Every structure is written in structure tokens, then in C-alpha cells.
Amino acid sequence: MSETSTPQESTGSQLNRSCESCRSLKVRCLPSPSTPNQCQRCAKGKRSCIFVAPQRRRPRKRTDSRVAQLEKEMRVMRSLLKNRIPEEDEDSEESEDENDELKSSARDQSANSDDLRYMDYSPELLTHGVSVPDFAFPAGVEEERQPVEDVIDRGILSIEDAEQLVAYYIHELASFFPLVVLPHTTTAVSLRATKPVLFLSVIAATAISVDAGLATVLNREMVRLYSERFFIEGEKSLELVQALLLMIIFYFPPASPLKLQFYQYTHIASTMALEIGLANKRRVKSDRRTAHDETLAEQARAVLGCYHLGSTVAMKTRRPNLLQFNDWMVECVRHLERSPHRTDQHLAIWFELQRITDEAMSSFGLDDTSTTSPLTESRVQAVLRWFDKRMETWKTNTRPEMLTVPLILEYRSTALAMYELGVGEGYRDPDALKKRYFTLPTPDEPDAQSPLSAIRIDINMKWMNAAHEMLDAILACSTDTMRKLPNLMYTRLAMAVTSLLKIHFSVRTGALGEVVTPETVNVHFYLDATANKLAEASGGGKYKIPSRWYQVIGVRGRDWYERLERRGEGPVESMAAPGSQGQTHSQAPGQSQETLNVQSMNTFPVSVPMVDPRDGYVAMSGTGMWPPMDAQGHNPSPQFFMGYQHSPHPASSQPMPPQFAYEPHRMPAPGTGMELDGWLPDGSIFGMPPLPEF
């Protein structure tokens, strides 16, 4: 009765003023006037009304008492451990070994954390990728993470054909852009076992110069494998950077211009190089200061290649370059200069052209991508004068045996790009896609240029002369060499053709026509000669890169030229026949040079002596400069191959499976429209922002 009694009935024991039901509901408990010993809510709900005594709370311990209790427990633990020491003397050695292992593993973990913090990776880590902690995955998940079958296992390509493709890349393609260099002893079996991603990238890049059908399949497999390794697995390694560099240099053109990935691929490689520490100085000191470090040379080629491609894209698209030049890159260049291999020395000389371009861009003020102010004539003249002197000094200081075909093309394209910037035509506006003819002016509208000054006329003449020299160098190339040229080189060709078309437009419609004649520009000859060269190199569509660029230059560029000529009621001649190409080429360039008499950079030596390979590496000096009037190709000395048997079609010894067979298509007739019905490169003739004219 004490628990159910009211406070008035149990005066001897103190009870709560609220019943348990009202306390749980947190409402006011009022006694019922009609029902004794119950509150109003309990009486209304017909339930028992219970009052209990309040629970006494235990006082909280003070801080000093807690500390005292912990100290007491610690003393008890020490005494227990002290009593157990004599019993564990026999196991002391084993415990010390375990402690040493724990300490060594802790040191390894701290070293790994330091590496992640300072971006200082060992060569093994750079080669095999950044390791992640081991987690306890289910058995099924572990099986899914195992490497899948590659193109060899699935029968897409035989190992014999893969051997031919790897050898073809090492001896005939790597010298065009020596950012990824493999020793001559490298085989497809060894490369596939040690670096499977780079192996697939090499054979996919080589297949572009062999057969379009095979190239389509291998490049699709390459993108799929790279996406799985990088985006899904999150791997980062030097191998992935090298594979991506090959994907950029030997870029496989997509079916739509909206799918161009130059800018994205370039900066994926740059950011990965930053994350794995390629762009930072190595903190590990080498005991052999004078010896050549091949691992460092491999990393130097990769980081310099990322910087070169990123700077080129940034210059054309006015977008920032994520990989900035620093003192470590200077050391990388010096290391390549001291290398005993000719490829490394060649790349160091090549990179000097990029530094000249960067300094000229800074002098123009174009390194700031947010600037929109036009350049004054005096500033442009001063910068171009300085640029001409630097380029002349570079050519004078370069040994004749180092002046190879790829280096000459890079020299010509550097001069062309800088003069184009001086004229004000170097920027590829992203909004140009909204225009009918993209970066080219509309043939039906007049030229809005103001009267040209003597400085502007001089810059335009140098720009035209640089375009002529660039096209002359490419037109002197043999058909076999044209099929080997990577897509990156073809962007230079399109840049030169675009420059001539713009100059021709200014001559026909603007003030430049008062001092320059259309015959001096000679755009008709260069359009015909270039289209014939590309049509011959495409092989009826078998070779992907020449075939694509034939569509741009031989079809769409020709259509723009004919519309401009119809506007001026000038003669529109048909495309020159392939047989008349050599005769026309021997006359027109000489005629334009004699008419112009523009002071330009001196011509290069007619030929370069062959040099034997060193240490099994591709001797870049074996690639001599073409004679001006002979259609010679990129053919090194026969003794250079060291047992390599050249095959014009390395992967076509056996027929391809039916699902991958490629049927050559007929080349379309010139003169079709400029509609957006096919692949258009952005930065050359028709202005897609993502690039081509590196």
C-alpha cells in the first residue's frame, strides 16, 4: 500500500509528486477529486496510479579522485608485470624478433607515408604503381581483381604479329617522338609480362601505321584497359604515364569531333606525373654522380613530354598548363644532355625549342590565359626579333648530325606558330564552332582589316614564308614516311595549310593584296600537292591518319578555296593529278621564293651522315634531313636495325578474324560541302577548341 498511497497517506516516506504514468508522458499530474489515490489521467484511463519513492543519485567522482584511482590501477599493473618477467625470460628472444619486425614494418609504413607526402617514389614503385592497403575482400571480389585476358589471349592478335609490331615501333616509329624509348632487345613477350599496359599502347600506336581495321580494335582495347586501371582501380605509375603519352602522340581520331580528347589526355598524364613525383626533385642521393641513371632518364623523358604537350595545348587553346616548368626539369634536360644515348641528347635539343616558345609567349604576355588586350606592333616586332635571334642561335649551336627529320619539322612548326601569334591568328576561339567555316573567314564577307603598316606586312610575309617552308619539308617526304608520321605531326601540316588559306583570303579581299599577289601565296599548288600526297598515303582508306587529314585538307579546305575563288570570279583549277606533283613542286616553291625574297631562317643541310647506333638504342642521327627536291623518307641505315627484318605490313602476315577485317573504302571526290558530317580537327582548319596543331 505504500507504493500506491498518496503523499498525504504516507507522511513517513517521501514519494514523487507525479505518478509513473504522468512522469513517462511528461505531463502535469493532478489528483482526481472523485477517485481517491488516483490522478485525473489515470482515473479517466481506468488504470492504476502508482507513486514511487525518488531514486537517490550517486555523486559524481571528482577529477582528483579519478586520477588517484587510475594511478592505483597502474601500480597494480606494474606489480603484475614485474612478477611475470622471470617467467618470460625463455621467450625474450622471440619477443625481440617480433618487436624488430614490428619496428621494421613501422619504418616501412612511415617511409611510404613520407613518399606520399614528398612525392618521392622509388623506381620499383614508379614502375609497378602505387600500392594500396590490403583489405579483406570476399573471395569473389578477389577473383574479379585478377588480370583479365588481353588481346593475345582472346585471339585478336597473335604473339608473332605482336612481335612484329613492337619491333616496328622500336626501329621505325619511336624516333619521330622519342618520349617512350625501348631498348632494341625488347620483345613483345617480355614487354607484355612486365608492362602490359605499355605493351598494348605500343602495338595500338603501331597498328595505326599498318592497318586501320586492326588499329580500331586495338585502340578501343587500349582505352578500355586504361580506364579500368586508372579510373576503376585507381592505379598511378610511370607505365600509365608512358602509355598515355603514346595515346596522345599516335592519337587515333574519333568518329566525331565532339569526342576529341587531346586536352583531357594531356592533363591526365600531367596530373599523374605530379602525383607520383615525376615533377619533383628526387631526395634520394645517388652514389655514382658521373654514371648515367637510366631510371632517371626514363622519368625525365616522361615529365618533359608531359610538359611539352601541355604547353602546346595551352598555347593554342588559351587554357592553363597544369604542369609548370621548374628547376627539376632543368636538371632533367641536363641529365639527358649528358646521356650516352643519341635519343636522349636529341630530346634535350628538342626541348630547347619548347623553352624558346615559352619565353616568347611570356614576352607576348600570353602566359596569362585571362588577358584579352591586343598586342601593340612595337611589342610584337621586338619579341619576334628576339625570337628570330634565339632560333638562329639554336640552329647554329645544334650539331649537324642532330638535325633530323622530326627535329626539322618541330623547328619549322615552332617558327610558324610564333609568327601566327604575332599576326594575331594563333588563338582557337571555342565559339568558332558556331560559325559555318569555323576559324576560316567566310568567303562571302569582306576582310575587315585596317590598312596594314610596314611592320604588319613584314610579319605576314614571314608567316607565309614559314608556312611554305613547313609544307615543303612535308611534301618532300616519301609515301612510306607519311604513313609512319604520328597524328601529332599531321597537325603541323594542317596548321601550315590553314595559314596559307588565311593569307590568301587577306590578299584577295584585304589590304595585303596591294603588296602581295595570289601567285606569291601559291595556295592552289600547295592544296593540290598536299591533297595528292595524303591521298597516296591513305592507301584507299587503309591508313587512318592520312585518310582523315585528306578529308580536312583535300576535301573541305579545297571547297572553301573554290568558294572564295568563285566570289572573286577567278580561275578555279581542278585538283592536280598525282603524276604532275613532282614537276609542280619543283617549280612553284622556287617561284614563290624568288618573288618574295623574304629574309628568313637559313635552310638546313641537305643531308646528314649516318651514325651507328650506340648501346642498342635507336640512333636519331640515322634519320637524315630530306634533300629539298627528292622524295626521300624516314629511312635509317640498314645496319641500324641489328637483325630487324623490315616488313611493310608487320601485322598482316596472317589474315585478321572476320569481325576485325577492314575493307578499304573509296576516297571521296573533292569539292564536297563543309557541313559537319565527319571528323574535323579543331585547331587547324575548322577550329575545334581541343587542338590539333600542337
UniProtKB/TrEMBL annotation:
This chain belongs to which protein, by name?
Zn(2)-C6 fungal-type domain-containing protein
Q: Where is the composition biased (Acidic residues)?
A: 87-100
Its GO CC terms are:
nucleus
The answer on whether this UniProt entry bears the keyword Nucleus reads: yes
Q: Which Pfam families match?
A: Fungal_trans
Give the region (Disordered) as residue ranges.
79-114, 570-593
**One Gene Ontology term from the biological process aspect of the record:** DNA-templated transcription
Zn(2)-C6 fungal-type domain boundaries: 18-51
Which subcellular locations apply to this protein?
Nucleus
| Compositionally biased intervals (Polar residues) | 580-593
State if Metal-binding is listed as a keyword: yes
Q: Name one GO molecular function term.
A: zinc ion binding
**Which PANTHER family does the UniProt record give?**
FINGER DOMAIN PROTEIN, PUTATIVE-RELATED (PTHR31845), TRANSCRIPTION FACTOR PBCR-RELATED (PTHR31845:SF39)
Annotated keywords: DNA-binding, Metal-binding, Nucleus, Transcription, Transcription regulation, Zinc
Q: Which SUPFAM superfamilies match?
A: Zn2/Cys6 DNA-binding domain
